[in-house]
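Batch manifest line 219
LIGAND: SN-glycerol-3-phosphate
JOB: complex structure
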Amino acid sequence: MKLFLDTADVAQIQYWKEVGILDGVTTNPTHLSKEKKSPQEIIKTICALLPQGDISVEVTQQDPQQVYEQAKAIAALGKNVTVKIPCQLQYYPIIKKLVAEGIRVNVTLLFTLVQGFMMCKLGVSYISPFVGRWDDNDINGIELLDSLRDMIDSYGYETKILAASLRTVRHFHDALAAGADVATVSPELLAKSVHHILTEQGIQAFTADWAKLGITQFP
Ligand code: G3P
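JOB STATUS: finished
ARTIFACT:
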């Protein structure tokens, strides 16, 4: 499974890049709205930080033709840019056109198996099922991942499942277990997910026991 960082915070992307586990970044208008620099500058910086990574950048236009033109301009920001487009019927024709023109598309704000099926038929690179926003409405979002996985494997589609809107360590765990191709995780959740109290306690116990030996040089 690939791991993407769900943020436009360049400092966090730099940090997790140096940790050595980062395969890409997903941004969205909300993430970019939190940064001080211009979206163009932020995206170009991220693309330069992860030249081998996959950087998702979302359209902000509403009209289909304007979305199409903006998608082409976003794709031109870097060869590692993937264009994010919301999963709406009015965008199906332009998504199909963009795919035919060789532009990588990540369809976002996806909430049902049927939506996922339609995007697979359009041949998009990624679908982003929003797990957490289903859970916000008392529906098990992970079940959507399971059904998408089964559908794609049953019919042999190439589209990758990019599990998004992951709010908890359990969501991250379940996305892995569901066989998502990618998980996109906020910096806060990633930090929480890699930490474990039993590891910390174990290190403390080993250190305390070793100290009893009074050995200063080893080996
Ligand atoms: O990339 C999609 C993700 O940022 C949405 O997460 O927490 O706003 O539902 P959230």
